[in-house]
Amino acid sequence: MLKIISVFGTRPEAIKMAPLIKELDGNTDINSKVCVTAQHRDMLDQVLNYFDIKPDYDLNIMSSRQTLSQITSRVLLGMDDVLEREKPDLVLVHGDTTTTFAAALSAYYHKVMVGHVEAGLRTHDKFFPYPEEMNRRLTAPLADMHFAPTASAKANLLDEGIAEGSIYVTGNTVIDALKWTVKEGHLFENQALNDVDYKSYRVITMTAHRRENWGKPLENICYAVLDIVQRYKDVLVIYPVHLNPAVRDVVFKILGSAERVMLLDPLSMVDMHNLIKRSYFVMTDSGGLQEEVPSLGKPVLVLRDVTERPEAVEAGTVRLVGTEKEVIVKNVMKLLDDQAEYARMANAINPYGDGYASKRIVQAIKYKFGLTAEKPEEFMPQV
After folding, report:
1. Among this protein's residues, is 242 annotated catalytic?
2. Residue 118 appears among annotated catalytic residues
3. Domains in the chain, start-ordered, CATH in brackets?
């Protein structure tokens, strides 16, 4: 049997790897193992529990105020034992976290093949997003199989000299995950969300936590939110706030007593997806939400100056608004005041997937290892 170890450590990775792990488990010619680093602990465990994924290995590396160097070194040391014991045929990593790069490096040290899920995203600025951009770039030359979600991600890899035969355009597995999580009549685990009057308020769901936005940019974002709720009495902003003190200290200082601003602890994956479904639109500096939200028919204002996901900007589902207060407010007002503009963004084609990315990835792996003669067809968004 083909032995594959999937390695991930954060909630976003877990959400996107879960449907792939389920697909791997459904193949009798694949021995699928799971190793979590727990770069994030509680938020990771929420997803594992929801999808009923029981890791074979848990490195449990998370510590308070951990540094990037500490994460990298702990993953490298922890993966030594896993790879020496299992001797897998392939290690699967996902996306752009420090776990991703460190696990790929460890696999390389052990001369194990690496498959990179969600490969090829680029901003071409090594500090935006930080450290994610370089995690992706450094993982690429270590990988033997590159599962690019879109044609433009494939083009980025080709530009860097990655062999075309090692690249598979699959769509993004996060679209697969939404089929598991979004349900009509969902009852929220967070009771405060069940009490919201979604008919009376236009709900804006917001997240902001990225390292490059710490400090002044995050302050600007929060003051923009204050301005918005003061201007529009029918707007309610729901902001699940990251647990990092660098984020919470700023957010609660500025928005802690604001009317019609709900500051919550981070939500479970299923609560977040269903909240987005009930929202008017989303403001975020997240990478993954730029892919998830358009699938739910909602516009996205991205609180960043650059994005490694330009396809949604080109398609019109996403708009980059940066972190300047006046620019954020202007763009929010346009969506709130201009129904035609809102409809244009809400109804744009989502370029990221059709719900079958996991099947394509598994078929590509089986093709690579000679378990099938059929190479998967590339994902092409419907026009």
Report:
1. yes
2. yes
3. 2-172+354-369 (3.40.50.2000), 186-347 (3.40.50.2000)
